[in-house]
Amino acid sequence: MCSFTLRLLLITLFSGKLFISTFAYAEEKVYIVGVVPQFEARKLTAIWIPILEQLTVETSLKFKLEGAPNINEFEKKFMAGVYDVVYMNPYHFVLGNQLQGYIPLVKDGSKKLQGVLVVQKDSPIKNVAQLNGAKIAYPSPNALGASLQMRQELHDMFNIHTTPVYVNTHDSVYLNVLLGDTQAGGGVGKTLKKQKAEYQQALRVIHKTTPVSSHPIAAHPRVPSSDIEKITAALMNMGKTEATAALLQGIPIQQISIATFADYEPLKNMNLERFYIKPK
Questions:
Q1: Which tens digit of pLDDT belongs to each residue from 84-140?
Q2: Residues 40, 71: Cα–Cα separation, whole Å
Q3: Fewer Cβ close by (within 10 Å): the C or N end of the chain?
Q4: SS (H, E, C) the chain
Q5: Domains (ranges, CATH) in the chain?
Q6: Rounded mean pLDDT of 205-224?
């Protein structure tokens, strides 16, 4: 075999292997999924792995849940565009859209997000004004209803000064209040309702924030539009049958609906950047 023919054969074989390798890589594309850590890691995993498995069944796409130990780390990741698909709070979506172009897909259409300020049921504190100078637990500085809006309203509506204590998750907020480590705590209605019945009965809500559209599931613009359509359709379809709708309720999404950019426009007028703390 002449050297030219041998060279041509090697190039053809190499090109074929390269094509096969590239094709296989494209076929094995795995979308990285992020979830705002409202609950502790095991609880989030138990909620989201069955959902992602069902999405794979319905779309033939592959997904990998990539956790974050706290909201600060979660923010770093979505701001850097690490996540292909992400469940985030509404203000996170506003930031994620500005920084990375994240696109809203679906949300819970049954209710809006509303922060709740809780105290122990038998606490002598009856109104927000009595919390002036108090320690208040929050999941993180930038959790929307539980912290950002709550601190904004305590400042703007009640003109009181408090000491924030950041405890990483909503679950920890409620425990801090129950144990008396803080006099009050900021959460949201959905996570309060996910607590044990005895915990809910031992807490009392003394303030609720202005309602805003609920957490969206969003996609990074690098995800092909055809796959965005598949994911959106599959999520909407999951809300139509009892078994798969039950999976979504764990998020919690009670009634899944399409999310739009307009849903989150009102957040831009709240001047929440005054209370937003950039992740380090």
A1: 999 999 999 999 999 999 999 999 999 898 999 999 999 999 999 999 999 999 998
A2: 11
A3: C
A4: CCHHHHHHHHHHHHHHHHHHHHHHHHHCCEEEEEECCCCCHHHHHHHHHHHHHHHHHHHCCEEEECCCCCHHHHHHHHHCCCCCEEECCHHHHHHHHHHHCCEEEEEECCCCECEEEEEECCCCCCCHHHHCCCEEEECCCCCHHHHHHHHHHHHHCCCCCCEEEECCCHHHHHHHHHCCCCCEEEEEHHHHHCCCHHHHHCEEEEEECCCECCCCEEECCCCCHHHHHHHHHHHHHHCCCHHHHHHHHCCCCCCEEECCHHHHHHHHHCCHHHCCCCCC
A5: 25-110+214-274 (3.40.190.10), 115-208 (3.40.190.10)
A6: 96
Q: Read off the pTM.
A: 0.76
Task: Report d(CA 100, CA 96) in Å as an integer.
Answer: 5
Tokens at 268, concatenated: 């831009």
196 HSE (CA, 13 A, CB side): 8
Who contacts 85 (Cβ-Cβ below 8 Å, separation ≥6)? 31, 32, 33, 34, 63, 217, 218, 219, 220, 223, 231
